[in-house]
Amino acid sequence: MRYTLLVGLALATAPVLAQTAPVWNTSLPAALAQAQATQKPVLAVFSGSDWCKPCMQLKQEVFDQPEFAQFAQDKLVLARFDFPRNKKNRLDPAQTKLSEAAAAQLNREGAFPAVVLLSPQGQVLARTGYRPGGASAFDAYLTQLLAKR
């Protein structure tokens, strides 16, 4: 009986757990191809995961939250481009090239964190960065930006 209850609970929470980790593209061309296929905008995020405090806050307070995963699931194609500085966190050279290419196209000024909202055709719709208030405030802000497109 106890085993059945635990299995039942595990199965009941499985969909919730699946939503807590959204899939992030690490290639801008792949994200844009997915956006065109699904007609969803791209949310491209540029971060310094091991040195930029606002980047860490944005990830922890917004992108790691189940509420954001649920919001983004049907509305956005996600792309993340990280620029860690610590040697132990360095990305492989191929990924570094992909991140640098995306930054050359969308984040020439080198702002961190930079959040760029793109149309499925790749046009910049809006730029933003860290915004306090957590996932619900960020989701509401993105909803406003999307309504303007």
Automatic annotation (TrEMBL):
Q: Which UniProt keywords apply?
A: Signal
Domain Thioredoxin, first and last residues per copy? 10-147
Q: Which SUPFAM superfamilies match?
A: Thioredoxin-like
| Protein name (record) | Thioredoxin family protein
Short name of one Pfam family: Thioredoxin_7
Which residues does UniProt assign to the signal peptide? 1-18
Q: Spell out the PROSITE patterns in the cross-references.
A: THIOREDOXIN_2
